[in-house]
Write a structure and sequence with these properties.
single chain; 377 residues; mainly alpha
Length: 377
């Protein structure tokens, strides 16, 4: 795998305002849909109505928005910096486990064994909580750990990797190996993370029943607002001097070094930020889906994040979001109708994008729009 070849077709950076008038209009429409339209259609429109949006689709869109945050994080590190990570599933899972630990403590004595400790600890005959569960009953502390633990891991790993000038396919393999090692660790029962089953059967969040429609809608709105906020933050980054240096590193890192910039600091900063974004996505994902287990750290999960970014269009920011919705929407349909063909479709889609759509779906849309303009001219 040649990273330089992968980034050769990436669009060149554009300078200017944060968003065009059309872009701001799109943001306001997205805000209206997330905060007004979807809650109204789900909570206030009767279930028998054609306009009613079921809980299933609310949960599905909420889950895909979490994936879209991961795809956006991948675009910052891959599309704009030229670093292909195959380990972002680890950061997503760590954020999910951080939230899951708090949610497990919120179950209290409502578990199967009616004990204050989580069921898997009772089953293993544990008498006390492990040291890393010490603050798991505090929502504030756990949310801080959701950010700090993945961020610190990414900072330390990235420092040694980037300082050693590991890049290209070697960096991708190392990140995948790191994720696989973490998955094997979390599979072990003695680590205190639920082993193969992970965490599930959540009851409450902040003392509020997690299954009630209003709670799920609040989680949905928070996820949507977080996605929009991260998109605006990413747009501000890539339009700044910092973002232009990142794109210069992507295109010619050695020239950046000769001009007096230190690529290590820039790569480390964006790498850590993208890891934290994935962790936040994982924390929002768990209460909506209701489960977190080591399977989220599998190699396939991290590879899928890269596929979402590639399908939508790298170095566009909106492209990875589109890719996440397109791929996961197709996955939902395939797994319900013809599940045995899903992996074949995913593989064919990635090959088709690599060969015929190097700029992804967003690039195809831009080509079609420019073609129509030329015909009119």
């Amino acid at each position: 795998m040649n990273t330089a070849a992968l980034t050769s077709s990436v669009p060149k950076p554009r300078r200017g305002l944060l968003l065009s008038p059309t872009g701001w209009a799109g943001v306001f429409v997205a805000l209206a849909v997330v905060a007004v339209v979807v809650p109204a259609l789900n909570l206030w429109v009767p279930e028998g109505s054609l306009l009613h949006l079921s809980d299933f689709y609310v949960a599905l869109v909420g889950k895909i928005m979490c994936y879209a945050i991961c795809a956006l994080a991948m675009d910052l590190i891959w599309g704009y910096t030229g670093i292909l990570s195959l380990g972002h599933g680890l950061f997503f899972a760590l954020g999910g486990y951080g939230m899951g630990m708090y949610l497990m403590r919120q179950i209290g004595s409502d578990g199967q064994y009616h004990m204050d400790m989580p069921d898997f600890m009772v089953f293993l005959n544990w008498k006390t909580y492990p040291w890393h569960w010490a603050w798991s009953d505090s929502f504030i502390v756990q949310m801080l750990l959701v950010v700090l633990v993945p961020g610190l891991l990414a900072l330390v790993f990235g420092y040694f990797a980037f300082r050693s000038r590991i890049k290209g396919v070697y960096f991708s393999i190392i990140t995948q190996a790191m994720t696989f090692a973490a998955m094997l660790l979390f599979f072990r029962n003695e680590t205190g993370f639920g082993g193969n089953n992970g965490f599930t059967d959540f009851k409450r969040i902040l003392g509020i029943p997690i299954a009630q429609p209003s709670t799920r809608m609040v989680l949905f709105v928070l996820t949507g607002l977080t996605l929009i906020g991260f998109f605006l933050m990413a747009r501000a980054i890539v339009n700044s001097k910092f973002g232009r240096v990142l794109q210069a590193i992507r295109d010619a890192e050695s020239r950046v070094m000769f001009t007096g910039y230190d690529p290590l600091a820039y790569k480390l900063a964006i790498w850590t930020l993208s890891a934290v974004m994935c962790a936040v996505a994982g924390a929002l994902y768990v209460p909506q889906v209701g489960i977190i287990n080591p399977g989220e750290m599998s190699a396939a999960s991290s590879i899928e994040i890269a596929i979402w970014a590639a399908v939508g269009g790298r170095a566009t920011l909106i492209g990875p979001i589109v890719g996440a919705f397109f791929v996961n929407g197709a996955k939902s349909w395939f797994t319900q109708v013809i599940p045995e063909f899903w992996l074949f479709f995913l593989g064919a889609l990635f090959i088709a994008v690599t060969l015929f759509l190097p700029n992804g779906l967003v690039g195809l849309w831009a080509q079609l729009r420019n073609g129509k303009k030329e015909e009119r001219a």
